[in-house]
């Protein structure tokens, strides 16, 4: 997870927390790693060949990777550059996964960017690489109108590849539909593509996948203190966004952001469970599967 500036270090950093088994809950205090990636934000993570990789930006042109062979307070984290964007781009959230593109194994990075040559607001573009650490190549040339590998307007991506259907799947947050906020301004949508190319994406007929509603306020974790329960009861709830997901124990665990999209603690993490495999989760979003 990414810890923003309001903390004991007075700067942003990355770290991992442990997820408990049983009923979905975050167990406060069970920090697996010491802070790393100090000064970096908007992290995502992937495991490849027994190594853990975290990716993050500084809301500029570089996306860095951090990797370690263990998850512990004593873990050593090495850093490198996964992607360096041209000056006209600004990178924010990212998501990384492996899959098959044009018959070849690749790693794909979905990147939330801004660029004056693209539609206003955030846009999701795709970089690819042969190795998990990159270097990732942004396969578009906006100077000649080639948008290349790109989804389009949106933010907060989670990207996965389904080997059964041979589709790349994307969860994302559409740009706010209500200027300066408003109820249900941020939602979670799904799209899929076999080529990752702009204009070659199919939106799920089940969209929006998640919206802000009364279920967000229901407390399932008995360890949450009363002060935080009061925040859950009273915060302005206009946001389900920033999804990430993993298959664990025959279920899909989805982590998301909810609340008012302003600050901690009125903007918080939540969890949802899908009772099935990752492939079955994607299938549920596209009734005419595959």
Q: Explain this structure to me?
A:
This protein has helices at residues 226-234, 278-285, and strands at residues 2-3, 13-14, 17-19, 26-31, 41-48, 51-57, 62-68, 78-84, 90-101, 104-114, 123-129, 137-138, 150-153, 155-162, 167-173, 189-193, 202-203, 239-248, 251-259, 267-274. The chain is built from two helices and 20 strands. The protein starts with a strand and ends in a 5-residue tail after the last helix. It is globular and about 55 Å long. The model is unreliable at 21-29 (pLDDT under 50). With 290 residues, it is mainly β. A hairpin with a 2-residue loop joins strand 5 (41-48) and strand 6. Strands 9, 10, 11, 12 and 13 form a five-stranded antiparallel β-sheet that branches. Strands 5-6-7-8 form a four-stranded antiparallel β-sheet, with no helix packed on it.
What's the short version?
The protein is 6% helix and 44% strand. The protein contains 2 helices and 20 strands.
* Apparent shape: globular
User: How many helix segments?
Assistant: 2
Question: What is the count of β-strands?
Answer: 20
Profile the largest sheet.
Answer: 5 strands, antiparallel
Mean model confidence by pLDDT? 87
Sequence stretches where pLDDT stays below 50 over 5 or more residues: 21-29
Helix content: under 10%
The helix-and-strand class reads mainly beta
Strand content: 35-45%
What does the radius of gyration come to?
18 Å
Roughly how many Å apart are the termini? 33 Å
Q: Helix and strand string, N-terminal first?
A: EEEEEEEEEEEEEEEEEHEEEH
């Amino acid at each position: 997870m990414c810890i923003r500036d309001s903390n004991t270090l007075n700067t942003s950093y990355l770290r991992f927390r442990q997820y408990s088994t049983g009923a979905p809950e975050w167990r406060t205090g069970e920090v697996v790693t010491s802070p790393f990636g100090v000064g970096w934000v908007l992290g995502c993570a992937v495991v490849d060949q027994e190594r853990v990789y975290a990716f993050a930006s500084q809301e500029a042109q570089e996306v860095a990777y951090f990797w370690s062979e263990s998850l512990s307070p004593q873990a050593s984290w090495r850093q490198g550059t996964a992607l360096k964007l041209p000056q006209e781009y600004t990178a924010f959230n990212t998501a990384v996964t492996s899959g098959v593109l044009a018959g070849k194994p690749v790693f794909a990075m979905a990147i939330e960017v801004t660029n004056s040559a693209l539609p206003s607001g955030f846009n999701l573009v795709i970089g690819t690489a042969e190795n998990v650490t990159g270097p990732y190549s942004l396969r578009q040339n906006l100077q000649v109108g080639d948008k290349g590998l790109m989804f389009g307007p949106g933010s907060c991506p989670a990207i996965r590849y389904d080997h059964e259907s041979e589709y790349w799947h994307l969860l994302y947050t559409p740009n706010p539909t209500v200027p300066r906020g408003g109820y249900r301004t941020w939602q979670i949508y799904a799209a899929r593509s076999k080529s990752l190319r702009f204009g070659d994406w199919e939106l799920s007929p089940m969209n929006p996948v998640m919206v802000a509603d009364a279920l967000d306020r229901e407390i399932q974790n008995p360890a949450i203190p009363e002060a935080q329960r009061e925040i859950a009861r009273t915060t302005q709830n206009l946001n389900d966004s920033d999804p990430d997901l993993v298959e664990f124990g025959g279920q899909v665990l989805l982590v998301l952001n909810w609340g008012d999209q302003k600050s901690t603690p009125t903007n918080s993490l939540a969890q949802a469970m899908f009772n099935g495999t990752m492939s079955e989760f994607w299938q549920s979003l596209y009734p005419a599967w595959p």
